[in-house]
Amino acid sequence: MFVGKTSFHMLTAFLTGYDQHALRHGGRGLTGWHDWLVARRGRDCNHAWPGQVLHIALPNGWDDVWSLPPGDEQHATRVLFELLDEFAAECEAAQGARFSD
């Protein structure tokens, strides 16, 4: 709804904007997201978090990050939301554990 065309790049641009806005206004944003993805993947590379998501979603690689085939684009988008849900759940659980101590 907020990105016009559903594409992996439009979603990552939207999420980057969300992150920057949240951080600028005192929120947590996506703090820890990149490190969480690197740990989830089990190895680091020089890609920012969108590249880390693509590595997880498309472990056999991709030819052109700007022109993913429709099936890969849909899969990467689905995996992005699954990973975000997991990350958010872990962050909420960790925050809840801190408040219950």
What's the gist of this structure?
With 101 residues, the chain is mostly helical.
Shape: globular
Low-confidence stretches: none
* Average pLDDT score: 88
SSE-based structural type: mainly alpha
Largest sheet: none
How large is the radius of gyration? 15 Å
- Share of residues in helices: 55-70%
How far is the first residue's CA from the last residue's CA?
Answer: 40 Å
Describe this structure as you would to a colleague.
This protein is mainly α and 101 residues long. It has a domain at 31-100. The chain contains four helices and no strands. The model has no long low-confidence stretch (mean pLDDT 88).
Please supply descriptive tags for the structure shown above:
101 residues; mainly alpha; 65% helix
List strands and helices in order, with pairings.
Layout: H1 8-24, H2 33-41, H3 49-57, H4 70-100
Helix pairs in contact: 2-3, 3-4
